[in-house]
Amino acid sequence: GPSARAQSAVRYCTPYPLVTLSALFLIFIVLVAILAPWISPHDPFELQPVMRLKPASETHWLGTDAYGRDLLSRIFYGARVSLIIGIGAALLSVGIGMTIGLIAGYMRRVDAVLMRFVDGMMAIPNTLLAISIVTGIFLARGGFYLVAATVRRDRERNVGAILAATPLSKT
Question: Which DSSP string corresponds to 80-102?
Answer without folding.
Answer: HHHHHHHHHHHHHHHHHHHHHHH
